[in-house]
Known about the structure:
This protein has 274 residues and is α/β, with parallel strands linked by helices. It is 43% helix and 19% strand. The protein has 2 domains: 3-119, no CATH class; 123-255, no CATH class. The N and C termini lie far apart (96 Å). The radius of gyration is 24 Å and the shape is elongated. It has helices at residues 3-15, 51-66, 104-119, 123-141, 151-167, 173-177, 195-206, 214-217, 248-255, 266-273; strands at residues 21-25, 31-35, 38-42, 77-84, 87-93, 170-171, 183-186, 191-192, 231-237, 240-246. One zinc ion binds next to loops.
Amino acid sequence: MGMSELKAALADAYANSAEPKFLSVAENGDELWSMGSAMFVLPAVPAGAPPEMEYALRVRRAAVLSGTCDECNASLNADPFGRLEGVEAVAAIIPHRRNCPASDENLLPQLQRFREHRKSTSTEDIFAAASRATRLSVEAKTPLRRMIRNRKFESWVRRLLDQKLAESTGECGHLHVDPAQTWNILLGDTEWKCDQCWEYQGLEIIRGNSPISTQEDFTCDHCRTVKDELEPLILRVGTFVLHGGLCRTCSKRSMETTEKPRRKKNGAKRRGRR
Ligand SMILES: [Zn+2]
Ligand SMILES: [Zn+2]
Ligand SMILES: [Zn+2]
């Protein structure tokens, strides 16, 4: 295949607005995408990336997958570099302008700083930061939160997490490569997903491709009763986020405190009477 045919194949994929499809994560953390008959290797957005760097990486990725950069208008310049395991390979080069956030000049030093910073941070601190980021993200996505106050429910949550971890059949490639990030799971499913793969799964569910049965979808995750309507349930323990549903009865009970109301100390009482 010559350069012109490769370019034609890519142009074809863009022209037919073939939908980019995320395939998998390579051992080095790069992502594999397909679009029409073309396949792309794209850098993943690393977990814990600062917002500016994450944005630059997303602009860069979108530019490759659409053929044009939204920020600087640069368009794709394919450069074939031979065969990779029998597959004709192309380096998709987008000559971003210097002031584009996705340009090498802007992005590469950020990536290097990020990697150096991670190397000099202890595993403990990296996980603590991931746990903090998970909390902030759950708080941002669910502004109306009600806390579980019932002790019995609290221990149920811990048992549930242990059970989900024990029965897990796997995790997405991103989590496999870097576990220091948010782990999402749909109660009823057995595969953990990073935030990005969780978003893809959400889109698939909207399209009718849910990993769980309709029956499971309408089953209360606490009492296992099937109900017409469930209240959404989001449980976070450290970096783990469990998504499911509770029936009204269980939801109400989970918020009732089990502790006896505390009596005022005698001293306080006496002072009050004076
Ligand atoms: Zn650009
Ligand atoms: Zn993932
Ligand atoms: Zn219930």
